[in-house]
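Problem 12. The chain below contains 110 residues. Write out its predicted structure in token notation.
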Amino acid sequence: MDVTTARERLKDMLAELDRSIGVLKGDPVAVREYSAADAGSDLTDADRAQAMLTVATAQRRAVVEAIERIDEGVYGRCVDCGKPVPEGRLEARPEAARCVQCQGKRERRR
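Solution.
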């Protein structure tokens, strides 16, 4: 993928993530009468919202870092080994920082 297309896709992703994060940071609980069941349900909803916020924030960071790699002229190169990230991987995940092999190693270490 050429860097102009990558930058546009990444900026679109960033805008969408910013909107999602804004919604997730809003008050998830409307003012209403509570029952014991509502309290349990609200806790579950809050936990789910927090998990989604964590994922969205991490993805946002990856997108910003990808834009920085474009600016530095190293977009499309694995941040670990320096080899090219496969075109198909960048098409699917424009924010990808690692080649498939290095990403696999990283995930196995977790």
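Discussion. Residues 36-72 form the longest helix (37 residues). Students who got a different answer should revisit the alignment rule from Section 12.3.
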